[in-house]
Amino acid sequence: xxxxxxxxxxxxxxxxxxxxxxxxxxxxxxxxxxxxxxxxxxxxxxxxxxxxxxxxxxxxxxxxxxxxxxxxxxxxxxxxxxxxxxxxxxxxxxxxxxxxxxxxxxxxxxxxxxxxxxxxxxxxxxxxx
Length: 129
Prior knowledge:
Elements (H helix, E strand, L loop, with lengths): L5 E5 L7 H11 L3 H9 L3 E7 L1 H13 L4 E5 L5 E2 L31 H6 L12
Antiparallel strand pairs: 1-2, 1-3, 3-4
């Protein structure tokens, strides 16, 4: 099963100090001038179509420097704004059960895949095989 792509977003006004500019530059690879333009254009997309782990690291790096950042799932369009995963619903992904989405906090799943093949790492099932 293919994983969804995630987008890192600037969600609000950001400080324009050198630390924030360097954080945007580190996440995007843009020049300092283009990083400042990106900060000025918030809300804006910082990076798109990246795996969840990379998106989480990028958003955390931005938040640590005072830049408000969020992550949006490319499948269900849910937006994660804080340090912790969102609640299990509503996930509108047509591709996998809600419990499989890395953007939620579920630890158990009773979908047919998990029952037939075993749970995902860190998950448990309630039904017997």
